[in-house]
Design goal:
The chain folds into 2 domains: about 1-30; about 35-115, no CATH class. By secondary structure, it is mostly helical. The chain has 6 helices and 2 strands.
Amino acid sequence: MSLSRRTLTFGGIAAAALAAAGAWYELPRLFKGGSRRADIVGRLADPRQAAILGRAVALDRMEEDFANDLHDRLRRKPLAQVLAEDAADPAHVVEAGGWIIPLTLAEICALASQSV
């Protein structure tokens, strides 16, 4: 069975449209230069100060794990609300340099210490 010129043309147009749609979706994210870590640290007013505290934080999880979790949580709720919820739950606070801070803040500071 051979393909007709019309079938081949429509198939090519469909493939080109699909490729253009994929590029339109992905290219802005590629040029934004944003990883989830950079997106989170970029929200801080002073990443250098957060990095100082972040160096004192000892977390059991891998950075990429909590970077992904943080990004998802901060997309759904404002940072202030997430921090207030963490501070209210004793299981979601950690010690860093003699300070007791919410886990979310500790994670953000740890990310800043790796990024700055």
